[in-house]
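In the laboratory, one determines a bound structure by crystallizing the protein with its ligand and collecting diffraction data. In a computational setting the workflow is compressed into a single prediction: the sequence and the ligand go in, and a structural description comes out. We illustrate the idea with NAP.
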Amino acid sequence: MKYREIKNTDLKLSQIALGTWVFGSDMWGGSAEKPCIDAVKTALDCGINIIDTAPIYGKGRSETLVGKAIKGMRDKVLIATKCGLLTEGKQVFHNLSPASIRKELDKSLKNLGVEYIDLYQCHWPDPETPLEDTLSELIKMKESGKIRYFGVSNFDYSLLYKAQRMTDITSCQGQYSILERGLENDVLPYTFDNDIGVLTYGSLAGGILSGKYTEPQKLAKSDARTYFYKYYQGEIFKRVTDILTSLKDINKPYNQIAINWARQRRGVTSVIVGCRNPEQILNNIKCLEWELTLDQLELINKTRL
Ligand SMILES: NC(=O)c1ccc[n+]([C@@H]2O[C@H](COP(=O)([O-])OP(=O)(O)OC[C@H]3O[C@@H](n4cnc5c(N)ncnc54)[C@H](OP(=O)(O)O)[C@@H]3O)[C@@H](O)[C@H]2O)c1
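The predicted complex, in structure-token form:
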């Protein structure tokens, strides 16, 4: 495994992190318990030392499965979970108020069966809560020892800048892939200059960049990929297929190309890859055995949807 440090912290993250949205099951075409637990064990055996989860993934199922899997191995793993994205019935809403975060954190600690979270992330911005209030609460939680570091996720540049002016933001999480390049505009240069760690998600674009689909998928309406990763449908699917075909000469599996591209971009600390079983992990980590050349990176950089 290869690791990268986040400056001014004692966090040393594997360049590939295990993503566990799929463990939630309900929004991702179902997932059985055993392969998820085995995936965590395999990840740790391979040297992956950071697992990303969130209480909203399967309403606690993802955190609970991660907790089960890491029992007895707490010292081997960095746990990154989140707060601020909640559900009530079918309604999803944001809440980063201090009272709500306090409640969520205690629930996450219980789900995971741990005494502290290594990296606690604001899942999405909450326009209704003053940022100062959220950050003050996170500072208090750090002082209490319930979390070691905190970061943000899905914050745009201006909000990240505002937060970093108020306190030290350890990390920033955002969607970043060959197909989704928004972070390059301002977030990545800013995090690089300010020693903020970057965790990318969706670097396989929900799985489509593995190249395993030869035709658009018929996914249930409730499946997160239908709205979160729009590439599964119609014209756009055809364009993604063309992009993958243009990378054929690199002569490596597409999933590895996609992960390496994100992993090798300046400023990226760790690429969170969602995996539903050990096989996907073992397949993905093979990308660490090789690197894209500068010419290959340049070729991919020119690619646009
Ligand atoms: N902060 C946020 O708002 C946010 C948003 C999204 C995700 N995340 C985090 O980031 C993680 C990664 O993102 P993601 O899971 O949404 O998308 P992703 O990593 O781009 O795609 C994950 C999916 O790709 C497929 N896959 C993985 N390895 C494969 C392989 N070797 N061959 C074929 N298919 C493979 C699996 O799908 P199937 O087996 O189902 O086909 C897997 O569920 C999440 O799990 C979550 O922890 C955070």
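The radius of gyration is 18 Å. Keep in mind that any predicted model is a hypothesis to be tested, not a measurement.
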